[in-house]
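Contributing new records

If you add data, match the layout below exactly. Sequence lines come first and carry their own label; structure lines follow with theirs. Keep one chain per record. Anything else will be rejected by the validation script.
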Amino acid sequence: MVNQQKSITFMQRGFTLIEMLIVIVIIAVMITAATLSMNLFSADRQIRLVAEQLRDGIMTARQHAILMPDVLGLKITRDGYQYYHYVRDKKGVHWQVLKKGGLSHPDIFKQHRVLAKLTRWNDDRSLMELEHRDASSKMIVISSSGDVMPFTIVLMDGKHSVVYQLRMDDAGMMTLNTEAKAS
C-alpha cells in the first residue's frame, strides 16, 4: 500500500505532454504577436535600413578618400552597390573594385527587395577626366579631397508605396528623406 502511494505521488509531480504543448503554443503566440507589433519585417523598415547603410557607407568612403588619398567611385546597380578606386598601373588608368573596408554590398537591394535608381547624376568631368566610359557610365565619383558628385538615389519597395531619397547637393550636404505614398 505504501509503495502504491509513493508511485502515485511520484507520477503526479510531473507535467503531462498536453500541458507542456499548451504552454509552448501560448509562448509561440506571444512571441509572434510581439514580433508583429514591432514591424521588424515591414517594407518601410527594410528600405530605411538599406538607405541608412548606403548613406553611412558614402560618409565612410569620403573619409577613406581623404585619408588614403584615393579617388573612389560608387556604382549603383539593380542588385546593390559597389565601390571602386581609381588606379594607375602598367595597364594604364582604370577603375578597380575596392575589396577592403567592407563598404560594398553588391546584392543588398536584391536581398531586401529594394528597388534603387540613380535619378540625378551630374556629368561634370571637372573632378577628373575618365578614360573608360564603360566602367564609369553611372558612377558617383568621390575625389581625394572628399568632394562627391551631386546625385539623387531613389530607394523604394516593389509597390512604390515607400520611397526614400538620398541626395547629395552641390555644396556636399547629404540628406535622407522619406515620402510615403498611398497604396
